[in-house]
Amino acid sequence: MTENFEILAEFIKDMSSETPDIESYIFVKENISKYQLKIDINSKPLKNKMIEVNTILKFEDKEINEKKSYFEIVYVSIVKINEEIKNKNDLEKILLCDVQNKIYPNLEKAFLNLLHNSGYPGIKFEKKIDFTELYKQRIN
Q1: Whose CA is closest to 77, among 2, 11, 21, 6?
Q2: Which of the four CATH numbers 3.40.50.150, 3.10.420.10, 1.10.150.130, 3.20.20.20 does domain 5-139 have?
Q3: pTM, full prediction
Q4: 44-87 pLDDT, tens per residue?
């Protein structure tokens, strides 16, 4: 089966790591297991059947407390869609599922590097994000 898209480029558009002070760093180091990974995907059309896809990963504490760190990465993929793709649902599946499955190893590596370089070397994501399952949940 031939793919209905081609990734022309992928890069980090923005990344952020915020730990305000040493007290916050120590608190976060002890409580980082409570942090949750959040993903958001948006896109905007470009010329010539190309689309900019922004995949945003945030790793943050959902509990309200003053001592916290914040981590975010915005990862961009420039995608060229096959001329034969006309159906909106097919396009949506490509952007939310197929492209994500392809770029995720690079995105995860970059995000883990950000966390490790921010002073949290032991962080690993136990579960891989299942974009196919997320997409199925979205359409049901």
Answers
A1: 11
A2: 3.10.420.10
A3: 0.90
A4: 999 988 999 999 999 999 888 889 999 999 999 999 999 888 88
Which pLDDT band, with edges at 50, 70 and 90, does 7 fall under? Answer: very high
CA angle (137 as vertex; 134, 140 as ends), nearest 5: 150
Buried b (16+ CB within 10 A) or exposed e, 21-46: eeebbebbeeebeebeeeeebebeee
Determine the pLDDT at residue 110: 96
The alpha carbon torsion through 82, 11, 13, 17 (nearest 10 deg) reads 140
Output the six-digit token pair for 50. 């190309």
Q: How far apart are CA 88 and CA 92, in angstroms?
A: 6
56 within 8 A of 41, measured Cβ to Cβ: yes
